[in-house]
Amino acid sequence: MKTISVKQLMVPLEAYATVSSDATLREAVVALEKAQMTLAPSQHLHRAILVLDEYGKVVSKIIMKDILVALEPHYGKVEGAGVLERSGFSPDLIRDMLKNNALWAEPLQFFKERAARLKVSDFIHPPEAGEYIDENATLGEAAHQLVVQPYHSLLVTRDEEVVGILRLSDVFAKICDIIKGVEVEPSST
């Protein structure tokens, strides 16, 4: 049976949106937009920004939700948000949280100003163990990891160094190709 490796599906580090850890949130958003403008129309848009240290090594990944949370500092004051996130929210609870915690109450201009001041290093966190996958892992292993973990992308490693990113959208597209009978290229490994 033919196999497909993560290496065949990943977006290489040099083709993805990256910023240094001392960049501002605004600079990160601009880097994301710039990287997306280089994509062919048939390619899926990037949905994250990789953060690099002073040596060019990936130290974190910023997803769209991280940006929204960073822009609204009151999210840090919502008690039990982590537990509620895992158990789900009723529409009434969501409205009450918004009102009672003054979430998204500031004029939008303040978010623009905050993004220009806020350093990426102020809100990033190191990736968790489940956010990594080896470049020689199979499509099946990647699909399984994306299904059982709460991530929409995985950092692809070679000898413990991040060399790219594997997105759920790319895994899904390849699975759809297989379903449609599109020829599968065998892995070179």
Task: Provide key terms for this protein.
single chain, 189 residues, alpha/beta, four-stranded mixed β-sheet, 8 helices
Explain the overall architecture:
- By secondary structure, the protein is of the alpha/beta class.
- The chain has a domain at 69-117.
- The chain contains eight helices and seven strands; from the N terminus they run H-E-E-H-E-E-H-H-H-H-E-H-E-E-H.
- Strands 1-7-6-5 form a four-stranded mixed beta sheet. A three-stranded mixed beta sheet has the order 2-3-4.
- The protein is globular, with a radius of gyration of 19 Å.
- The model has no long low-confidence stretch (mean pLDDT 85).
List the helices and strands and how they pair.
Blueprint: H1 6-9, E1 11-12, E2 18-20, H2 25-37, E3 48-52, E4 58-63, H3 64-71, H4 81-87, H5 91-100, H6 108-117, E5 132-134, H7 139-148, E6 153-158, E7 161-167, H8 168-180
Parallel strand pairs: 2-3, 5-6
Antiparallel strand pairs: 1-7, 3-4, 6-7
